[in-house]
Design a protein that fits this description.
The chain is mainly beta and 469 residues long. It is globular, with a radius of gyration of 24 Å. The protein has a domain of 160 residues. It starts with a helix and ends with a strand. The strands form nine sheets. Strands 22, 23, 24, 25 and 26 form a five-stranded antiparallel beta sheet that branches. A four-stranded antiparallel beta sheet has the order 1-37-36-35, with no helix packed on it. The chain has a four-stranded antiparallel beta sheet with strand order 2-3-4-5, with no helix packed on it. The N terminus is likely disordered. The longest helix is centred in the first third of the chain and has 16 residues. It has one helix and 37 strands.
Length: 469
């Protein structure tokens, strides 16, 4: 009996120290500042943008040491606040980090290789200034990888009445290798940019609404061929302005579209390989009234070549109406493999949400926020294998990042950690910031988690988490 008690006691002691972290305050970045944004892992370094004032933006990098943390570049003449620093459009490829900032040349594409010399504007696409002195902006967006190059959409001055668009600014598709000379137009004079663009196999696909491509063009799914967009399929009633594009394997892409079948509008999940014959319906998410909507990023992820996504069911046909309940779905690109995993229904009448899906150890971890109480869940793709890991308290400032062994998530001003088990999920007690502090930019850099801490007194600190035991 004593031996059994000792073994049990040792087990609980071991379990309590199985996940322990050391939080290292690497450096105080600034004693003032608006925010830290657009953090990425670039060539084994933590690279991020920090805006100290509305007119001053700085680019930093860190290898996790005080000596190895330094300012790379300083931008001057900012015309906007951080809302116009397009952190959602940061992009890494071929050892380069592409990002969009707005300075005295307008909102244009920049790149860095982590050095001052290798940080510069890729191309001033929209040259010139307005009559009030404000620089024109091309506003690059929708980045796609093309081996060692990237494709993106941007605006440039065009010719009025060309293609009957009646617009002086025209959208174009560019390709770049990160240099001014290597940035060229591959598709010219679009009436409007595509709502999204993605590479499937060796084919680029995009969605255009009525008249977006040229005057009189049909809405539908298009592919890029010989520097022109060709219609793949166009018999959708409506394809969302932010369609769910997810490549589950190199030759299969899933997307959402409404489909008119006998005057019944259905929210459907489709798949495509970039050809008309390879574009087929997988499943109708709803088959009655239009009260359903697939939720978008960060509410989907891919694990084991299977897409996991969230479906919202509304109380009426108005997407601004109250959500009655949500569902967790999955699809492997087949009809039989596109199924609902589990329903999530609120306990009361307050707001709720299922979001922040993250792949971890071939499973999916996500957040269920019901009446301001956050629960961390895990799923293996089955209903019985979908269960709660831990209750927390606040729904404020939630983000997730994973290493090979552990997943970390911010919740309020605290950091939690899990190994994917109920007993292995807990708050990191050795990191207790002020309740008004703000944690952001959780980023995995070679299995070391970096993050920034903004204090109530406006100091900006750079941290890393080490010594997983």
């Amino acid at each position: 009996m004593k031996k059994l008690l000792l073994i049990t006691l040792c087990y609980f002691i071991f379990d309590s120290i199985a996940i322990s972290q050391n939080f290292v305050d690497i450096k105080t970045i600034s004693s003032q500042g608006e925010s830290v944004a657009s953090a990425v892992n670039l060539n084994g370094s933590f690279v991020f943008l920090h805006q100290e004032t509305p007119e001053l933006l700085k680019l930093f990098k860190s290898d996790g040491t005080l000596k190895g943390t330094s300012e790379i570049y300083q931008f001057n003449g900012m015309y906007r606040t951080t809302d116009y620093i397009l952190g959602d459009y940061n992009f890494t490829n071929n050892g380069l980090y592409y990002f969009v900032v707005e300075d005295d040349k307008g909102k244009e594409l920049w790149r860095t290789d982590g050095t001052k010399k290798g940080t510069f504007i890729v191309k001033d696409i929209a040259q010139g200034k307005a009559s009030d002195g404000t620089p024109f902006s091309s506003s690059p967006h929708f980045f796609c990888k093309n081996n060692d190059k990237i494709l993106f959409a941007a605006s440039q001055s065009g010719y009025k009445n060309e293609n009957s668009c009646n617009r002086t600014w025209r959208s174009k598709i560019f390709e770049t290798d990160g240099t001014n000379e290597g940035t060229k137009i591959i598709v010219d004079n679009l009436c409007s940019p595509p709502s999204n663009m993605i590479k499937v196999g060796n084919t680029y696909i995009a969605y255009f609404n009525d008249g977006w491509l040229y005057s009189g063009s049909k809405k539908g799914l298009y592919r890029l061929s010989n520097n022109q967009f060709e219609l793949i399929k166009g018999d959708y009633t409506y394809l969302s302005s932010s369609p769910l594009y997810a490549v589950i394997n190199p030759n299969c892409c899933l997307f959402e579209a409404e489909y008119n079948n006998s005057n019944n509008r259905m929210i459907c999940l489709w798949k495509t390989d970039g050809t008309s014959g390879g574009t087929t319906l997988l499943s109708s998410i709803n088959n009655q009234t239009n009260k359903t909507q697939i939720n978008y990023s960060p509410s989907y992820t891919i694990a084991n070549n299977t897409l996991y996504f969230v479906v919202n069911h509304f109380s009426s046909t108005d997407y601004n109406a109250k959500i009655d309940y949500v569902e967790l779905w999955k699809s492997d690109g087949t009809i039989s493999g596109t199924v609902k995993i589990k329903d999530f229904k609120p306990k009361g009448n307050m707001l709720f949400n299922l979001s922040n899906l993250k792949t971890f150890n071939n499973k999916v971890i996500f957040v269920w926020d019901d009446q301001n109480k956050v629960e961390l869940w895990i799923s293996d793709g089955t209903e019985t294998g979908t269960y709660k890991l831990k209750d927390t308290q606040s729904n404020y400032n939630i983000s997730l990042a994973a290493t090979d062994k552990y997943l970390y998530f911010t919740q309020g001003s605290s950091i939690w950690v899990t190994d994917g088990t109920v007993n292995g999920t807990h708050q990191c007690k050795n990191f207790v910031p002020n309740v008004n502090d703000y944690i952001s930019n959780l980023t995995n850099v070679n299995n070391t988690i970096f993050f920034t801490l903004s204090t109530y007194s406006h100091y900006r600190h750079l941290y890393k988490i080490t010594s997983d035991k």
